[in-house]
């Protein structure tokens, strides 16, 4: 009896925590907690025991064979949902065991915690883990007073602590930040396409792959112009080619290409292009094509409201009878940079530049998108009046900050990424502005010219003359018509 009293006194004298521990031992609560902690193991053991007691060894064999077979069948029948399910399970496991278990220690080691009186501390909350092609994304809720920049400053420390080559920090909205633990540099590897899917929605056109390995899309509705530049061989034409290969498969898109290089980079598109001109010397021919597109723009601006009921092309449904027109001018400096030209050529160059400038300023509501590419991104080649009206800008590799600014504008001066830093070997990598106005690096896919040729030949039947839509005829067409009338052409 005295022993029992002593035990009771000792128990009462124990600090609260230890008393709770003792109570837990006495009530069996510890066992429930242990079973809950090991619930997966317990569940598996129960299932195995049940199968064995019910069906004997056959039950065990079925248990071993059925789950992988069912998973395989699911994967074959519906790979998307299977991948989604496996990724969700993996992400959950990593949230709890890979990152969750170390989160507190890593945050403290990287000095991203907040000490509170009494020696404890607060840590930002690790809310979710998701898997992307480049690695894992940790979705974090910030502590009050923290900003994504606090994490960006500690990115190196976080990378070492998590044992990955790089951690990229992205602002995910108010009070949130995403940490991308990069295991694979997707931009380092070319992405070669052997076919290109047709673009069906001009408001969501896939154009390149971002650093997280996911496709980036562009909304071409209500866009008047795009400028792109980069040193020779940086991947401008190839980037445009992959984009054009998707767009030309849409019957409600017509393409016009002027190649100022005068070569055959764009010859693949000739069977599908409403107009194609690879002239670098005969500026009259170039002016004729540009005038025709400009004429179509004027025609639409003057008649669209009366004939189709809306002044803005993009408020109307896309219709092959009223296609969106993409005008690509590659190596535009051939026509805009007048240095070294004789007077007559200069006059033509100024007219071309004036027409391009008008298209860039007014083409949006006429459904005409002008895309200007140059290997000489200076203000002579890409007049600022044109650049500043181009809402989409792409900078492949350039050699100087001035060149980067000539394409992307002053925003590039303070940006974390710059096209000057793109290594020479990374052809096809470029810096673009995101929808939020931030700059990011992307990789354009590569489509070789034979593939592009095959696609253009496949959809050559979708080609239409711009005159069908109200554009004036070019001088060349007038001449051909006169020749026909005079029986000159056979
Ligand atoms: N996205 C890409 N992925 C892999 N390789 C690429 C990519 N883009 C371009 N290249 C490689 O770089 C070469 C040059 O590309 P491209 O002709 O597009 O350069 P460019 O910038 O238009 O040059 P230029 O100004 O001289 O016309 C291509 O032939 C191809 O080998």
Protein model, in words:
This is FtsK domain-containing protein. Residues 188-405 form the FtsK domain. The chain crosses the membrane at residues 31-50, 57-77. Keywords: ATP-binding, Membrane, Nucleotide-binding, Transmembrane, Transmembrane helix. There is one protein chain. With 490 residues, this protein is of the alpha/beta class. 43% of the residues lie in helices and 17% in strands. It contains 16 helices and 16 strands. The chain has a 10-stranded mixed sheet with strand order 8-7-16-15-14-9-13-12-10-11, covered by helices on one side. Strand 5 (166-171) and strand 6 (176-182) form a beta hairpin. The termini are far apart. Mean pLDDT is 88; it is low at 10-17 and 481-490. The structure holds adenosine-5'-triphosphate. Residues 190, 230, 232-238, 261, 375, 427-428, 444, 446 line the site of adenosine-5'-triphosphate (ATP).
Q: Give the termini distance in whole angstroms.
A: 126 Å
Shape: elongated
Q: Which topology of the largest domain does CATH recognise?
A: Rossmann fold
Q: Structural class of the helix and strand makeup?
A: alpha/beta
Largest sheet: 10 strands, mixed
Oligomer: single chain
The tally of beta strands, per DSSP, is: 16
Proportion of helical residues: 40-55%
| Strand order in the sheet with the most strands | 8-7-16-15-14-9-13-12-10-11
Total of domains = 2
Total DSSP helices: 16
Mean pLDDT: 88
Low-confidence stretches: 10-17, 481-490
CATH class of the largest domain: Alpha Beta
Just name the CATH architecture of the largest domain. 3-Layer(aba) Sandwich
Radius of gyration: 32 Å
Binding site for ATP: 230-237
GO molecular function: ATP binding; DNA binding
Organism: Jiangella mangrovi
Keywords: ATP-binding, Membrane, Nucleotide-binding, Transmembrane, Transmembrane helix
């Amino acid at each position: 009896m005295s022993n029992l009293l002593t035990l009771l006194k000792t128990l009462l004298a124990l600090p609260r925590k230890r008393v709770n521990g003792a109570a837990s031992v006495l009530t069996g609560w510890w066992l429930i907690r242990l079973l809950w902690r090991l619930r997966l193991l317990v569940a598996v053991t129960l299932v195995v025991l049940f199968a064995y007691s019910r069906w004997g060894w056959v039950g065990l064999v079925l248990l071993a064979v059925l789950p992988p077979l069912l998973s395989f069948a699911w994967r074959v029948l519906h790979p998307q949902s299977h991948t989604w399910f496996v990724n969700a399970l993996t992400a959950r496991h990593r949230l709890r065991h890979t990152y969750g278990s170390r989160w507190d220690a890593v945050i403290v080691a990287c000095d991203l915690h907040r000490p509170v009186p009494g020696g404890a501390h607060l840590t930002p909350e690790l809310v979710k883990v998701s898997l992307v092609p480049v690695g894992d994304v940790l979705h974090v809720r910030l502590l009050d007073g923290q900003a994504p920049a606090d994490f960006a400053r500690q990115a190196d420390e976080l990378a070492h602590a998590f044992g990955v080559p790089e951690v990229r920090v992205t602002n995910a909205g108010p009070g949130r930040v995403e940490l991308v633990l990069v295991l694979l540099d997707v931009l380092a590897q070319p992405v070669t396409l052997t076919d290109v899917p047709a673009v069906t929605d001009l408001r969501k056109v896939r154009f390149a792959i971002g650093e997280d390995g996911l496709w980036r899309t562009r909304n071409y509705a209500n866009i008047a112009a795009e400028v792109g530049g980069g040193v020779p061989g940086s991947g401008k034409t190839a980037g445009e080619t992959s984009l054009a290969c998707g767009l030309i498969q849409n019957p409600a898109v017509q393409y016009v290409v002027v190649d100022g290089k005068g070569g055959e980079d764009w010859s693949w598109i000739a069977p599908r292009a409403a107009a194609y001109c690879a002239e670098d010397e005969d500026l009259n021919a170039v002016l004729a094509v540009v005038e025709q597109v400009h004429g179509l723009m004027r025609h639409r601006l003057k008649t669209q409201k009366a004939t189709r009921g809306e002044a803005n092309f993009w408020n109307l449904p896309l219709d092959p009878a009223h296609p969106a027109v993409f005008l690509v001018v590659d190596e535009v400096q051939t026509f805009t940079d007048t240095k070294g030209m004789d007077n007559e050529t200069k006059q033509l160059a100024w007219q071309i530049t004036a027409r391009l400038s008008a298209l860039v300023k007014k083409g949006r509501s006429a459904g005409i998108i002008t895309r200007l590419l140059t290997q000489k991104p200076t203000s002579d080649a890409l007049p600022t009046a044109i650049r500043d009206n181009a809402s989409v800008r792409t900078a492949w590799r350039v050699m100087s900050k001035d060149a980067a600014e000539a394409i992307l504008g002053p925003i590039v001066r303070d940006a974390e990424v710059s096209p000057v830093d793109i290594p020479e070997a990374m052809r096809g990598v470029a810096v673009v502005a995101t929808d939020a106005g931030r700059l990011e690096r992307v990789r354009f896919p590569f489509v070789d010219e034979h593939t592009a040729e095959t696609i253009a030949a496949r959809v050559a039947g979708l080609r239409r003359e711009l005159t069908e839509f109200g554009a004036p005829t070019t001088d060349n067409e007038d001449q051909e018509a006169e020749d026909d009338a005079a029986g000159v052409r056979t």
